[in-house]
């Protein structure tokens, strides 16, 4: 069903396909299950973070703490597995719980004390990074057979591997989409993002919903941290720097408005993949120096957005309701 | 009591100022050396002076940021603009014979042009501010690297030394610059109708359009101004050390600038702009940093200390806490009468 | 046939890094390689993506400048499975050595020790040192710190009395040094040990502005040997810098070619660095500018 | 009148009893010791001037604002709602004054928010849509509920909000100015529903400024004035003049109800549009307005009045037709151009298109004039103050001072500020879309007087209004819109409520 509301998402998908099509046409090996598998794996933890972020942004907020949360969770995992010799399964459980708790605390501060989310989560960003440093300032190898089993687990589809990390991402994406569309909580998120005053007058529990939104974001970010730890089998304090910006842009590129209330959780996946494809285009080209790499990323982003706009305008014209 | 009543006209305005004073006073009690100011070799010397000096770049950028945030926008590119304009200034000084004035004008103009690009993307193309400025945040540093060929550029310039560490009437020149800019901005915003229009556009863009305000033009203006501010900060930053390290120059400054604006009570949802308080916000952030550096906190605790104090400041200023305090006061009074 | 080689760089966080990239590229061009470059912008995940893209493209060899020492096992195994040899440059890895051909680079611990030794000699074993670190948790910082600490341990009169991060930049270095000068007092500081040249340049400025003479009242030692430090040194404002060679590409390519030719390659190739002093600074500056 | 007759007669315990309720804002006592009660199954009108405290009362009752003092008993038990949702769960359902729905969600999502039908624990969109259709049907709306809410005009949104409140099972229903932008048909429909609910034993609190509606539907009336309780009356026993006196505090001269304005000879045409239209939006329209003439625009919901005003003012761009203003041909593409050409436009949706909530009353009022003068020529503060003060006085705007954020004013007073904003620009042609929406009787009277005065001075007005009574009073000519085209024009003595209704129905 093509409605006005889905147009931004659809145009984002269209542009992603155009980019991917261009890569397949221009570079050997770009098209194919192998790179597709890699794209899913390599961008999994950004996408997982972005799914949590999508809820936050849809609710009209923002969460800058996710990058540091990932670092903190990695450090915590390393601490639990290496220092305390816990089984990774326990470590994962504890880490997710702690991450979700921290998210809940931020949400509570935002909702109860009515402080802008930007600044609360910015403080969270400093705090979690700092906590990560305190747990350990070293680069630690998380050596445990279970972790290796997880990271090596995967099914091959032709040349491409759908591995554990990618699977978790896809599951969490599906969960996110369902929660946003088919639960009361999801609708409440859209409502407070659309107009929080009206939502309050309609009887939406703003405080509760806000707290849950940040708890959810904390949950997704901590899973992203665990995925990072699993994928690399290591932890270091500088993990996830600026991931919050990547996640926010992934969400926005996926057609979600930063002002809240408008967009789709699935857009986070599209946005994340778009970033991944742009990066691989540059890697496959391989001729850019550091300076041009940055510039080209910027230019491609701009091109992506402009194409999206053009498609949007065109689609609006075509689908506009006749009187 | 009377006095306090007078002060409590608007907790929004007094919050940041009192927070700053409280932080300094507490620190002064813990370590009297922190608040000591000496007069030495024709200049003031002391940690508080350092705070003022170090805060100028952030404060200047935050001024521009405050205006942009007033339009309900955000400018993530300022850090990169700092790098670009620092690079431009350094290259002009080392590679050309231009007079210092022309160097300044060209560098600031570079900032203005980049700001205009942001402005065009946001207000004429309609890209969301965070993404529009992210584009230049990412590619801007690349541009700076192109300008210098990826190396850092050191230079010798008397005029730059004066900007970086010179004194005028025993007060660092850069403080004069920041104060001048603040004054000029306040004048432009409040003595013309620009301030009103920007606040109106930020608070309700649709209604502003209905009254005939050219919303796009004023949004654009905000980004141009922010670009120029960032350029000025860039020049000051390179003048400080006599070298333009484009790879790190201005890195993460955008976060501090935004933080300053928000500490000053500015809302990221647009509307009211508090210029003077923004400077206070920048001073709060810098005071924290300086305290952390001079207090001997182990490095890995830096961020925790910073986050905790910011949170404390926010919690005390929050509407909920204020209301609770008021309630308590009322109850106390109620008991007395 | 000409070789296709992919080079995965960490990013472009410093002038030294840029010089390293340029030198490597020039070397590859001189050898007529089809040279593919990936800039990871300071993120390990981007480096992993780049390695994988080189695997998919089927390059003949990969040169990797790892951002961190851990977390490479999986992707290196993938390269191994694809039969693509990997050569490390700049720093080593905490991985099974069979996963890479060799590790070319300098020895951070050694560097820290060299600076420590220089300082011990210069101050005759008595010195209160302030340390300017880079980012917390950077591998280079940790190892240099360890090497430095190993040496000064032997001198009861030497200790680090304050340590802060100057975030690798001269403005950062200047700001931290200013605070140290106020809180500790210039007269109580004997030397500055800066983990890179930029922070040393900033520290020298701060010392000057506090009315002291850098390099005399307070010694300054740093690492990297970037061009600008020679100017500062020539002006008599810092005492010593340790060169980190940006010319590791040649050694790496040699090793790669040898490996492809079926020869045995040692697991560790150290490129020499050396200390530079003010005496030769002016000359070096002119040469490198 | 200490012991009021109404409660004395009634012995049954009231559904809701309010005792000594007070609420203050900085500088204002919005509610001052208010006590009265609501019976089971009655329609209780809550009346008072703009800023009397009606909306505040409702918000305190439903927990949106905390009360400073006082007690509320609901079915004999202490009632303390923490927020609107809580109140709802306790059996009090409310439609607040401004439309408070979520503009970015679909009509279905809005209607079923907090009460979505589910299947297997998840929301079932199909069932939700079905339920939404049923709810819409009750209020006689035939729209596609899968469309986004803000695609509909404010009046339709108003109806949707009402449909939503009716759909929740409540013992007490509160409607704060639900009829402000509805036309006669919708109002009748709503009243039928209210009567139906009343028969089921549901009580309704009803706020309006239309006194005729009060008499048509309500059982009892409570009047507030300046935040204070005046009295409660049985509607049937209270003459209208008494009611007005109770509300205003003094007796108002019989509202001048002349049979209609004289038509003016259209000799001196100020404004003319010729085949002005836009595809999918408005069929080409011809219309003229003479100097000093008031032209009314009548029509049903969605008939295209607002669209026409938007096109004239350049909010939307036309794709056909020509415009002349004061003898000059105009091509208007933006409000700015329209203002420069000498027009002004008071839009329908004041919350979205009118007020800038954070800015003060003063700033809101001078905004248009300042924009007209440009940013380089700020209006001196003294001049601003004088102008604003005069307007506050002239329109009797109730505000403690001119620096209060306009968002904190009562709805009617916000409307007056927006009107003042445009009067200050001294336009040649003033477009008003539902200008008296939410304005009380006294002020309504004043505004009509001001409009007459303005046109005497040579200003021309084009007024879209759903209030036929009002149109009949002041319009020299009425253009009737239907299905996005102009269907008829009535002049002078042809203008009457009947003739307009007939033209619309044709
Ligand atoms: N949030 C608020 N902050 C400050 N003052 C307020 C606030 N809300 C209402 N007031 C003030 O309380 C008084 C009563 O306002 P209220 O909205 O209850 O009036 P009303 O009777 O509903 O008027 P109207 O018919 O115009 O809607 C007004 O003077 C208004 O300025
Ligand atoms: N009864 C209705 N049924 C369907 N759509 C409607 C209805 N009323 C309004 N609309 C929608 O609202 C939009 C605005 O109509 P417009 O405001 O121009 O009409 P209007 O004559 O001013 O009516 P109103 O009294 O509602 O302001 C139209 O685009 C139409 O889609
Ligand atoms: Mg009201
Ligand atoms: Mg209308």
TrEMBL record, chain A:
GO terms for cellular component: plasma membrane. GO terms for molecular function: transmembrane transporter activity. It is found in: Cell inner membrane. It is a multi-pass membrane protein. Pfam families: BPD_transp_2. InterPro entries: ABC_transp_permease (IPR001851). Its main location: membrane. Keywords: Cell membrane, Membrane, Transmembrane, Transmembrane helix. The chain crosses the membrane at residues 6-23, 35-58, 64-82, 89-112, 118-135, 156-179, 211-236, 248-275, 295-315. Belongs to the binding-protein-dependent transport system permease family. AraH/RbsC subfamily. This is ABC transporter, membrane spanning protein (Ribose).
From TrEMBL, chain B:
Keywords: Cell membrane, Membrane, Transmembrane, Transmembrane helix. GO terms for molecular function: transmembrane transporter activity. The keyword Transmembrane applies. Pfam families: BPD_transp_2. It comes from the Bacteria. GO terms for cellular component: plasma membrane. PANTHER family: ABC TRANSPORTER PERMEASE PROTEIN YPHD-RELATED-RELATED, GALACTOFURANOSE TRANSPORTER PERMEASE PROTEIN YTFT. Belongs to the binding-protein-dependent transport system permease family. AraH/RbsC subfamily. This is ABC transporter, membrane spanning protein (Ribose). It comes from Reinekea blandensis MED297. The lineage of its organism: Bacteria, Pseudomonadati, Pseudomonadota, Gammaproteobacteria, Oceanospirillales.
TrEMBL record, chain D:
Its main location: membrane. GO terms for molecular function: ATP binding; ATP hydrolysis activity. GO terms for cellular component: plasma membrane. The keyword Ribonucleoprotein does not apply. The keyword Nucleotide-binding applies. InterPro entries: AAA+_ATPase, ABC_carbohydrate_import_ATPase, ABC_transporter-like_ATP-bd, ABC_transporter-like_CS, P-loop_NTPase. It comes from Reinekea blandensis MED297. Keywords: ATP-binding, Cell membrane, Membrane, Nucleotide-binding, Repeat, Sugar transport, Translocase, Transport. Pfam families: ABC_tran. It is found in: Cell membrane. This is Putative ATP-binding component of a transport system. Residues 16-251, 264-506 form the ABC transporter domain. It is a peripheral membrane protein.
